Amino acid sequence: IETKIPAQSREVWNKHKVQKFSTAEEFEEKFISHVEWTLARSLYNCDDIAAYQATSQSVRDNLVIDWNKTQQRQTARDGKKVYYLSLEFLMGRALDNALINMRTDTSTHDVGSTDETLTKGNTSREMIRNAMKQLGFKLEDVLEQEPDAALGNGGLGRLAACFVDSLATGNYPAWGYGLRYQYGIFAQKIINGYQVETPDYWLNFSNPWEIDRWEIQVPINFYGYVDRSDKEKTTISPSDWIGGERVLAVAHDMPIPGFKTSTVNNLRLWSAKPTTEFDFAKFNNGDYKNSVEQQQRAESITAVLYPNDNFDQGKELRLKQQYFWCAASLHDIVRRFKKNKKPWSEFPEAIAIQLNDTHPTLAIVELQRILVDLEKLEWHYSWDIVTKTFAYTNHTVMQEALEKWPVGLLGHLLPRHLEIIYDINWFFLQSVEKKFPHDVDLLSKVSVIEEASQERYVRMAFLAIIGSHKVNGVAELHSDLIKTTIFQDFVKIYGANKFTNVTNGITPRRWLKQANPKLAELISETINDPDDDYLLDMSKLTALSKYAEDEAFQTKWNDVKQFNKLRLADLIKHLNDGVDIIDREHIRNTLFDIQVKRIHEYKRQQLNIFGVIHRYLSIKELLQSGASIEKVAERYPRKVSIFGGKSAPGYYMAKLIIKLVNSVAEVVNADTEIQDLLKVFFIPDYNVSKAEIITPASDLSEHISTAGTEASGTSNMKFVMNGGLIIGTVDGANVEITREIGEDNIFLFGNLSENVEELRYKHQFSNPGLPEGLVKVLNALESGAFSPQNSSEFRPLIDSIKHQGDYYLVSDDFDSYIATQDLVDQVYHKDKKEWLKKSILSVANVGFFSSDRCIEEYAETIWNAEPVKPE
Ligand code: Z57
């Protein structure tokens, strides 16, 4: 590797080589020097926040050493590099994760152990905990100081975060590329039962996890025109795009440590800043203020994350974000490639670029522009390189989430890119015409340009398919669905092999070891794996199966669950202004029923809350008919129904569902007649760090989307990994979860995806009459039982079912949902041993859903990339 340092200076560099801390002693020294030098504080003003900063800086120092070595090693080895382009990385907190991942010990066990006989070379979380104690701090309190890096909305963004963890753990030479939003997803407040959004300015204190690369600045152009004064030139020959607005993309790197490996990969996030160029025309006109203001606007590009999940708002600023990020990332990738002086034909062997949804589709167009316009390569030669480089992951079949940009808007912002899109489409349609002559209908169906209405649109998913060599869905059912529905014509054109499935996964480091240390400890002890190697090879968990019916083990298993339920009960009490709604006395016999995820009609939180209302009404009915509370408890045993999740700020129905949950909670929790048989709570501001407390505490979690709408779901995997059972529809990854853990260990209900179309169709015409139970619920809603001040408040939720065709099939699945909830009660309360057996077997067989497996599949079947292992 090249260097500017003369050979004779090497000695000095080697003599003063930086070293990682590896003992408690060395850590303490680092910590204190960061308090003094980095923070300019001292023993006299070091609070928990300062301790968090100093600890993070110290840990970061270790990571940076390995980061540098990893980059050198990966460059020297010159294997294929993988780039994961995602507009969202929902990372959560970094410190605890780094402490867990950077552990290098091979002999000490670190959870709950008070063993202080850690020797040199063992950098473990436990060592740091003890050292911090020596320094006067409690690790758990210090960890709480870190704000979540909430640069994502939901599943898609969290998936990207799990992926970078697994890429580093698997030693893949892989970088993530994203945007460094100044404001992540909004913080959610609940005021009078309504969601209120408040800004998440997460960079309030300096962020110890980012390395600012002020030297890496990429100029990005927008607007302007294409110079066509040379009449010889066509749109497929090298063209000059004269940009009209210019901003700079600045790199910020986050180190991504792998688990039990010294590989530290990079997550590069771009922020926008004004160029130092000045608009002298304006300035000379005396318009100094305007000229400065225009410059200031640059920063708005990376100011805020769009807060929609599974919905395309189509705003110009969003398109600007997308191009800004794609152009900066590609410039960076191409720059690195060119250092090697390889021929362009080798580009696809050197580089794989994965597109996380259609958000980075412009990267395809940008690479074609770089090759044709800047590198002056022939069009078709370039296009061959492009299509061999890219692969596209689809995450949804929902129409409202599929991106399409008005041709006018795209052409205004990126005039040269629109030309290239038209030419890509032209050559594509020609090839279709050749294969299926005279099929005009087919041509209009698969054209990148939609011409159905006045406005013409660019269909980004079609462009992504055409520009990629592989397209994958995120769970088996979903990957089958895209082949038979939204992309069926492309299967006809390209053949089925272009389309593949890679079922999602989650990282067991964060979602088991970090979130549920007690369960992790019990597992490692039981399967005799003191070094937690099962976190790398989850098939080891199958060894738990033989204890599934072992009573002593079941008791320990149940104790862990109780611990986690108490931990959540504490959080809920804290969030409820110190008022405890959960009866600690009975917590062992109280079923924790949890649904936490983005609020969306297709995810059907409305079905859940209708079920809760139904349960409440039934309890009341029984009591009114004279049954004793004990008698009622036999039919409706104790339950706490927990909800959480954000609604997009502009999504009226989702916000109404949140309000309904809170209104029901208010009525039910205040009803002394039912005692503690039923409690309802909406956890405000659901995020990654809250998920780490919530997930381990579930007895039951709900994954109840209308069949065919949830592409995969990933929280279903998290709950199973923590010993929770699932009530769910035959949708997304629920299907494979059932296959892996066994159909006896999951509560499935509802209509199948193959029947959805017909059911929806029927709703348009006939009115089959709603199920009796649902009628009671809707009547109660209509009567204002949960909205005394405004009895029509929930009208839209009722109307959607009664008068608008019940698009999400709540009425069709209602009875089967209620019946299945009854079954849940039966098993949980009448046969606890059976329940625990199901729970243990679930964890024993959850291994498939590790994101390590998932990344390996991407590497083998899509990227053709191999790990670069440290010596
Ligand atoms: C998003 O979070 C998902 C899909 C999208 O198209 C967008 Br935009 C955001 C989710 C799916 O809804 C989940 O089912 C899936 O598990 C997740 O992406 C990760 O694949």
UniProtKB/TrEMBL annotation:
<dbReference type="GO" id="GO:0005737">
    <property type="term" value="C:cytoplasm"/>
</dbReference>
<dbReference type="GO" id="GO:0005980">
    <property type="term" value="P:glycogen catabolic process"/>
</dbReference>
<feature type="modified residue" description="N6-(pyridoxal phosphate)lysine">
    <location>
        <position position="718"/>
    </location>
</feature>
<keyword id="KW-0808">Transferase</keyword>
<dbReference type="GO" id="GO:0030170">
    <property type="term" value="F:pyridoxal phosphate binding"/>
</dbReference>
<keyword id="KW-0663">Pyridoxal phosphate</keyword>
<dbReference type="InterPro" id="IPR000811">
    <property type="entry name" value="Glyco_trans_35"/>
</dbReference>
<comment type="similarity">
    <text>Belongs to the glycogen phosphorylase family.</text>
</comment>
<keyword id="KW-0328">Glycosyltransferase</keyword>
<dbReference type="GO" id="GO:0008184">
    <property type="term" value="F:glycogen phosphorylase activity"/>
</dbReference>
<dbReference type="InterPro" id="IPR011833">
    <property type="entry name" value="Glycg_phsphrylas"/>
</dbReference>
<dbReference type="InterPro" id="IPR035090">
    <property type="entry name" value="Pyridoxal_P_attach_site"/>
</dbReference>
<comment type="function">
    <text>Allosteric enzyme that catalyzes the rate-limiting step in glycogen catabolism, the phosphorolytic cleavage of glycogen to produce glucose-1-phosphate, and plays a central role in maintaining cellular and organismal glucose homeostasis.</text>
</comment>
<dbReference type="Pfam" id="PF00343">
    <property type="entry name" value="Phosphorylase"/>
</dbReference>
<keyword id="KW-0119">Carbohydrate metabolism</keyword>
<protein>
    <recommendedName>
        <fullName>Alpha-1,4 glucan phosphorylase</fullName>
        <ecNumber>2.4.1.1</ecNumber>
    </recommendedName>
</protein>
